[in-house]
Amino acid sequence: MKKHNFYAGPSILSEYTIKNTADAVLDFAGTGLSLLEVSHRSKEFVAVMDEARALVKELLDVPQGYDVIFVGGGASMQFCMVPYNILKTKAAYLETGTWAEKAIKEAKLFGEVEVVASSKDANFSYIPKNYTVPEDVDYFHFTSNNTIFGTEMRFDPDVKVPLVADMSSDIFSRPVDVSKYAVIYAGAQKNLAPAGVTVAIVREDALGKVDRPIPTMLNYATHIKKESMFNTPPVLPVYAALQTLKYYKQLGGIKVIEKMNLEKAAILYDEIDRNKLFVGTAKPEDRSVMNVCFVMKDEYKELEADFVKFATERGMVGIKGHRSVGGFRASIYNAMPKSSVEALIAVMQEFERQH
Ligand SMILES: *Cc1c(COP(=O)(O)O)cnc(C)c1O
């Protein structure tokens, strides 16, 4: 039976990415060696790294004055790397979910943190509005897509200070005005590659302003200067990332991908709103295009476990919601074909007919 992969992360990758990476595990770039056993300093792998960095710039229209780096440590390491490198005295953070809370906790180790607004009062089911970001902060940090709670900020906030964003779960899903940002970072395992690598886009002139000493490995400047080859990079995830980036380019770029994503999300949210059994958990205007969270309506709550079983038997994988929201979560990242979303909708309709 065909499996439809709705896992939140690690999550679905394009067939193009998986097939090319598998081929390179057997024979990398005609070297007669496996991707798993080549030197990261070989000319073939250096070319992979260079092309991957260049394609991130091309796809996201990264302006002059920015560098793209691939590093380890996950998005979670960026929670500390960002303030380590660019928090001089004070930063503003928007608290929209678990990942934002973790980023805030790390930033507090380095300076004053002003949480300008939070949606914790309603289990992070909406994006706060009408908050003020002070003009004396070094940056304003937000999580563009809240993977767990299914809310998304599909815009670059209009504030007077540089932005920093955790785009782990919606990078490459929509165009971004990079020029407004000091740092954009994303763990790869949602829209780019297998776990093990993180991409960061860093504005050069945001660096070198803090007085504290920065450990070499946590210093953006190290990785920029050495073109992400200061130490051994995660070779396989970087190779896979390059395949995904090439695939995105072949599809026609980020605007084309965004249109596909909006279509997929629209049909699924329409079904949730129409179906008598289900209700969405995120405030409609803040709904994520990547992670669609929904639960059974109160009167059908006892059917929740049944639906997971019913859907799983029909090839739906990973739709159980995160424990902090409950219910269901369908992660429909870039690589998710519309046909898989349609298959889930058919299962929801079949379940409705039986109840
Ligand atoms: C998955 C995720 C993280 C955590 O990433 P790691 O690579 O596991 O550290 C952080 N932020 C967001 C928005 C995520 O979706």
From TrEMBL:
One GO biological process term is: L-serine biosynthetic process
Q: Where in the cell is it found?
A: Cytoplasm
Residues holding pyridoxal 5'-phosphate = 75-76, 99, 147, 166, 189, 231-232
Keyword set for this entry? Amino-acid biosynthesis, Aminotransferase, Cytoplasm, Pyridoxal phosphate, Pyridoxine biosynthesis, Serine biosynthesis, Transferase
What this protein needs as a cofactor is: pyridoxal 5'-phosphate
Residue numbers binding L-glutamate: 41
Catalytic reaction list: O-phospho-L-serine + 2-oxoglutarate = 3-phosphooxypyruvate + L-glutamate; 4-(phosphooxy)-L-threonine + 2-oxoglutarate = (R)-3-hydroxy-2-oxo-4-phosphooxybutanoate + L-glutamate
Named from the GO MF annotations, one term is:
pyridoxal phosphate binding
Q: Which InterPro entries match?
A: Aminotrans_V_dom, Pser_aminoTfrase, PyrdxlP-dep_Trfase, PyrdxlP-dep_Trfase_major, PyrdxlP-dep_Trfase_small
Functionally, this protein is described as follows: Catalyzes the reversible conversion of 3-phosphohydroxypyruvate to phosphoserine and of 3-hydroxy-2-oxo-4-phosphonooxybutanoate to phosphohydroxythreonine.
Assigned protein family: Belongs to the class-V pyridoxal-phosphate-dependent aminotransferase family. SerC subfamily.
Q: What is this protein called?
A: Phosphoserine aminotransferase
What gene does the UniProt entry assign to this protein?
A: serC
